[in-house]
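Build the 3D complex.
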Amino acid sequence: MKGTIKLALAGSPNVGKSTIFNALTGGRAWVGNWPGVTVEKKVGVMKLNGYKVEVVDLPGIYSLTAYSIDELIARNFIIEERPDVVVVIVSAINLERSLYLAVSLLELGVNLIVALNMVDLAEREGYVVDVKKLEALLRVPVVPTIAIKGIGIDKLKNIIIQSISNPRRNPAIVDYGDPIEKAISRLCSFMKTHTPEVVHTYHPRWLAIKLLENDRDVVEKVKLLPKGDLLINMANEMRKELESVVGDLEVYMVNQRYAKILEIVDKVVRRVRVKGISVSELLDTVLLDKFLGLPITITSIYLMLYFAYNVSLPLVDLVDALFSSLADYTRLILQDKAPLLASLLADGIITGVGTVLVFTPMIAIFYILVAILEDVGYMARVVFVLDKVLHRFMLPGKAIVPLILGFACNVPAVLSARTIEDENDRKTVIMICPLSTCSARLPVYLIIASAIFGTYAALAITSMYVLSIIFALVIGFLFKSFIFKGPSIGFIMELPPYLMPQSRTVLIKTWERTKRFLTKAGTVILAAAILVWLLSITGPKGLIGPEALEDPALLKASWVGAIGRALQPIFTPMGWDWGATIALFFGFMAKEVVVSTMAMVYGAEETSLGRAILAHFSPLSAYAYMIFVLLYVPCVATMAVIRSEIGLKYAVLTIMYQMVLAYLASLAVMFIGMILGLG
Amino acid sequence: MYLIAGIVAIVNWSSMLLGIEPILSIGYIPPDAGFALVMITIGITMIAAAYFRDNIAKCLACALVGSGLGIASAFIQIAVTLAVGLDVIITWEEGDVLGTIFDVLREGIIRADVVLGLPALVLFMMSYRALKRLL
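Done.
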């Protein structure tokens, strides 16, 4: 082995970056987080001419500003990790937009290769890109590719090897005009003589440009360096001087970059035939239509969920039966020899973990459908259409995916929020995700509504779904208005052409997402299941034994009983007894457990649970209970995922706001109901 | 037809919510809000095709998308019916399993979305061919 090469893969969303990553690495990748943040980092390896090439997939970005976490991650990685070579994927069908990132990378002083992807689609659109001319203008290698068919990948690999021995950089790609260029030169000279430390870290020209643009991240970092303040003061003075001539300097410099890009595009793009209407454009006239777009989008999402939920039913039942049999078998062989161990394995681990794993087929099928729609190019349209609705509540269009997914399970819903670029938006969406009423809450609604509301049960249950959407939108709006205000970046998105889905890409995406669900949800549930089991078979007076899980009187003496009775006074205004209270406590594990706990605590079989509920609840307190179940704390798995995605602080904040919201909402129902004489 | 099926479904669903007997009792149309949503969307997309008859490109695009959704909903319903049939076998405890499976398949396959899938397929092929000639 000649050595290890570090390669970074950059590109805007929907330019074929994932396809090229998979083509280079064979799809084998490990996933971690970028240092200090919880944005996903994907790394793969390829062997090339005796070199081990570590391919790092940078987040999908349009530029390298400090306004979004993804862009900051990408540029900090390049500055701090100094990859040997950076490959930027540029879309031939949207050269203007894609080249902005390439130019930004060139200014950063990296050894760059441009992969000009989708050249076939450009030809289909009626124009060709002169690769030689583009290469000459950028002064770095340009490789035409059709990633989806694997065309150009071998050439790209050869160029990567060549670029190791012959690096090509062009940081002065943009000429900003005499006064600014002079300022950049003066700043560079100052750095070399007075602050040589910064030159070791940053490319001097790029740093000078960023200081003149007053880039907040760069300014904060330079402040910490010796004599950094001197450099910042000098740049500030120059900026003031230059702004008196050109206006806002940052805007002016961005415009200069675009002017350079337009000049390049003008020279390299040649139209070979008159542009006709494409299939993508034609379909978009309907799918993005202001009247038809929204109903088609909602229908597509509904059909997707309908298919995933129903088609997975046999598999869900099979997995359920498998876990039930496993639990029964475990009891059978261990009950007499080691009853405590039998109960731990059967009632705690197998039942607890099984509750989550039974949803795996449904989630996997849903992920397959999402991956297909992503590959086809329709998900980008869904986001585009729904962006308008959600923007009225200050939420990003991409929030629709987690919110819809949340109706099935909140865990993948929270994970799916990773696609949201802006960190504040992502935090907001993750924190409102648990308000989507997941399928685990449905058994609770069903058992209470059918027992109490009779023929109006469906109306009561439907109201839970409607309230779920209203609460998510309103709370999201409040978060965005008061907590996650932050800098607001515009929602820029590329609408990719419609393409046939690639089975390999679909399977890789599905496996990656499902694996994450299995490992994260599985591990958390396992720990929590053991904890609840322990709290049920022990009490303030010591060990009670597994019998407590069968006998309500013994359960009352356990920690579970003690906690239930301790919490009960809080819920007295709603008219709930300790049994209903402890059922909510167990529901923190998984919401379905509310039902089985009620059955256990009320000493009733599930078949007659309806009668027991009727005896313990009034219609008003039952409806308040349903609202509480809808809004109160997310389950353990969701909490764990929220913590891993945005940190412990926000996970705790989510618990707190949901508890307060659930309490106030159910109290309000009781209060209003009493006033109306419904109590 | 799609629009009519959608309206019937939404009326029956509303009746069900109010706890009264379905007003328009038609066996092939379930009283389901989701079903109504799909049928109405397909219906208005196809009506849009007629509305845009002077703009041949948009007319064909509407017909293509509407009939495409019609085929998709028919395919999904068939898949769901087969899955529910399979689920009956998996979860069966006692009684006439074959009779139940037959009932599930019959009720699933004669639904309006499956029946209307066939004309939607014909319309899809016609508009696809016309669109290919146009491009």
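Chain A has a mean pLDDT of 83.
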